[in-house]
Amino acid sequence: MRKESIALTSIRGFAALWVVGLHFDLNMGLVGYKLWPGLVHYGYAGVDIFFILSGFILTTVYRGLEWRGVGRFLTRRAFRIYPMHWAVIAGMLLIWVDAYLRFGVHNQEQQLRWLPVFSLMLQPLIYHRLMWNAVSWSVGIEVICYILFPIAIMRLRVAPIWVLAGVIVALAGLEHHIQIYDLYVWGDGAVARGLVGFGLGMALRLLSEKIADPSRLVASVIELIALGCIVVAASIGQGPYIPLFAGLLIVALSWESGIVAWALNARWCFWLGRISYSVYLTHEEMIGLVWPHFPATRLPFSHRVDGIVWTLMVLGLVLALSTVTWYCIEEPFRKLGGWLGRRVEERPVARLADSASLIRPTSRGAV
Predict the structure, then answer these.
(1) For the segment 258-315, what is each residue's pLDDT rounded down to a tens digit?
(2) Could you give the number of structural domains in the chain?
(3) Is residue 286, in this structure, part of any structural domain at all?
(4) CA distance 103 to 353
(5) Is position 272 within any domain?
(6) Beta-carbon neighbour count of residue 192 at 10 Å?
(7) Residue range(s) defining the domain that contains residue 64
């Protein structure tokens, strides 16, 4: 298992912030504050970057996955995503009960009958609407990708370069089509969106491993071109190309020799990447929790400045809360998942060894 790539972890944090920026802009727009037109409009592409990055990183770490290691892989994945998801559910339930008992509030998007399905993150497959913590739809798609990953990696890793190149071209075309026509967050469209991005990340990793790493200068040029194209595409309204350029950037960052990778090795970037999952899961709920008690209208500045200051204040709370949940929930359960995963993997081997000892002929029975 390879060591963690700091640059790839860091870029995950910026993708999460892009999504957060979009949701802040949308939520604040509903109450009369238009904050950051332009770049944040394509913050939804951060989710597609997550899919590509997830496929890329898991292929890097589990390229040699065999059937006896599937239990360990799925155990580690489950302990990576579900504990934090359930912690958010617990917090939302407390808020729901308080609002219901005190004010009789009944939110149609937070019906208790949906909770079991939502807890298992199966909502993208069952309900064609967003419910409870809406942003978790993409994590539900990730669960499907995790289940299919063992089969996919065992087939793709033996594919020759020309096959991988063909897969990348096909998936890149599908990714572009999805960004234009089928940008769903539930149902079959959402599943296709996740599988295409995840598969594209897998194929990019496998192909890049077959090609020699370039020099520091070439890596830096590719990084800067890819990053510049992402910014330009978002600026001129060509959002469907963003995931494709992001895939190129991810490949370049994996070489860990360019100037952008060097910048992303900063400790604060790495910290942002590590807490990105908590940031992603908690930011919408933090917005809904803070606004009724302290809206931006209570700030003493101009209308636009009030919106920006309030957003930065709430974002600071999200980052602080995410840091706490990383140390108290994500990291402990990640380690527990690793320990349990090793036990799951060792058990079949131990049973096989016991079976072999039972059928081994004794010296008396030997011919």
Answers:
(1) 999 999 999 999 999 999 999 999 999 999 899 988 999 899 988 889 999 999 999 9
(2) 1
(3) yes
(4) 62
(5) yes
(6) 16
(7) 6-359
